[in-house]
Amino acid sequence: MHGMRLADVASRAVPVPIAPMPIRPLSVLTALLHVYIALRLLPALAMLTAAWPLALVALAISAFTIPLPFVSRRSERNASLKEALKWTGLISMGWFSSMFVLTLLRDVGLLLTWLASALAGLQVPWSALLPWSAMAVPVVATLASLVGFLNARRTAAVKRVEVPIQGLPSALEGFTIAQLSDIHVGPTIRSDYIQRIVDAVNRLGADAIAITGDLVDGTVAELREHIAPLAGLRARHGTFVVTGNHEYYAGAHAWIDELRRLGLKVLLNEHVVLQTRNVRGAQNDEELFESQLVLAGVTDFTAGHFDPAHQSDPHLALHDAPPLVHTRVLLAHQPRSAPLAARAGYQLQLSGHTHGGQFFPWNLFVPMQQPFTAGLHRLHDMWVYVSRGTGYWGPPKRFGAPSEITLVTLVPARG
């Protein structure tokens, strides 16, 4: 396979079907966690206020509505009701996440306080500490969810990043790539949201646009009209896309065809050579090659589990690349593609996938799976930039991990 383009063999592969999400066990688990929250908070709240039944009602609504986005996908009736159920369930999911984490932290804090008081012989005002700490949980969770909702629904801000490339030819100095990642067009991200992103990117006037995976959360039939504004993206060298894991959940082959129909260039373990200057009057090959940039793209790190023909391969993506073009940029959805990319000889990898954690405390768990969470990092002789994502997944909530449209500028390394 190493001597063939992946795109030439992909049509012969049989994609692995994805099993539906096990809704019933998930519903039981979240219901039990809601019971835990109620048992830990409601008795203490009753000591402080007669309004504690409001917290009980809120928990009941949350427990009931969280499964609804998944259940509603199975019914084609009443589109407006389906949309309302998805929104309600996903907002509840974000609120519940904060409620659970804060309840857990409260219990840990109370336990540590009890141990410290027992060991040091201190008197703790439990009659005040218990109810007020219980009150803090829903107040903080609700405020965090509200701020997180506003952060998630706004158009992502532009983040400008300069990447110093060793030996960067003068012809490539200032070359810009606008990176979009992890938009997750789906239940709550629709065409108007996408159009705002397209307008913001086009105002940047970038040399190239890169979409580093997890563009969609649904099938082509469901989302074709909502993805359509991406056809309006404008850059001197075009828009390039690589697949993320969510494309494979949603039917990657159909999405690849649709994105190409829109005029986007999908890179499947392959590359393009961008000629950045008019070299009609070039005096020699060196002048020609110094004005070129290799832009490569690999399939998602896990793509081979869904389709063996889509096994991610940074080396294959450079097959037949001109050896004298030394400036090489890789688009790879997951940061954990970086070790192979560094060995393959790239100077820069642009990735996403992590969302920067999206909201606390999930940012603490990202390093368990990925080498980098967000921002610019060095791995051997290669830079890795990890976007926090341009949209969001699941709950419309971003807290402590703002979304971004990244404008990457190549600059020569100093010293």
Automatic annotation (TrEMBL):
- Every Calcineurin-like phosphoesterase domain range: 176-356
Key words of the record: Hydrolase, Membrane, Metal-binding, Transmembrane, Transmembrane helix
Q: Which GO terms describe its cellular component?
A: membrane
Do you know which CDD domains this protein is assigned to? MPP_YkuE_C
Q: Where are the transmembrane segments?
A: 21-39, 51-72, 84-105, 129-150
Q: Which GO terms describe its biological process?
A: lipid A biosynthetic process
What is the official name of this protein in its record?
A: Metallophosphoesterase
